[in-house]
Amino acid sequence: MRLCAGMVGGLALLILVSGCGRNGSPFASFEARCAKLSPPSFVVVQVPVTYRIDNSMSVEELTRKSGNTVATQRTMGLTVGTFGYSSDVELRSVEDARGKRVCGTPAIHVELSSQPMTVSVAREIADDRCQHDVTLEHEMKHVAVYRRSLDDSAEALKAALPQAFAGTRMSTSQRELEHELDVKLREWLSSFLRDRQASLIALQAEVDTPEEYARVAAACH
């Protein structure tokens, strides 16, 4: 009855280039056209946590999947989710080809999820109504932690993104600006997710206390 979690990520980039700026003129200075770019914008959404219940795996299979051995711990239930993100970026930019300069501001959209998620209960207790239900009840506590962690992560990301990607970005070429933004966002989101996942694992460990294990073991006796 322990957590297994992973992390995935993805990024898509859309570029909008303007030679004279959205509200500028071909005679305006490069700096003036950069100043007219829309400020950076950020949207963070979360995919609602859903799960499927699987009664097909044996105690031995679940124990191995949890990282234990039957000799040390028999795993009757296991909740497995993948905590990750996907992102899309719209880069609004102005290019000064003569001076080899580009400025741009990003519109970043990030989607957080804990999908797919599977709640497994050992097939040996599938027909034991009491033991099955008390094990499933315990696993639902892990699902609740996923939901709470996803909410907290979304709020933290909403606060952190504007600080990390504030202002107008400058580079020597359109391609270089795209590359720099892509690399920074990937690295930044990966670091953010690693920190949040460490917090998630710690919260899940709080569910699997000796007292909780004892309660589940004694519930049907």
Overview of the structural elements:
- The protein is 42% helix and 28% strand.
- The chain is of the alpha/beta class and 221 residues long.
- The chain has one domain (3-218).
- Strands 2, 3, 6, 7 and 9 form a 5-stranded mixed sheet that branches. It has a 4-stranded mixed sheet with strand order 1-5-8-4, with helices on both faces.
- Helix 3 runs antiparallel to helix 4.
- The longest helix has 36 residues, at 129-164.
- The protein is rod-shaped and about 80 Å long.
- The two termini are 19 Å apart.
- Mean pLDDT is 88; it is low at 1-7 and 17-24.
Poorly predicted ranges: 1-7, 17-24
Determine the structural class based on helices, strands and strand pairing: alpha/beta
Report the major sheet. 5 strands, mixed
What is the beta-strand fraction? 25-35%
> How many helices in DSSP terms?
5
Number of domains: 1
Shape category: rod-shaped
Instruction: Give the N-terminus to C-terminus distance in angstroms.
Output: 19 Å
How many strand elements? 9
Radius of gyration of CA atoms, rounded to a whole number: 24 Å
What is the N-to-C succession of helices and strands? EEHEEHEEEEHEHH
Determine the mean pLDDT.
Answer: 88
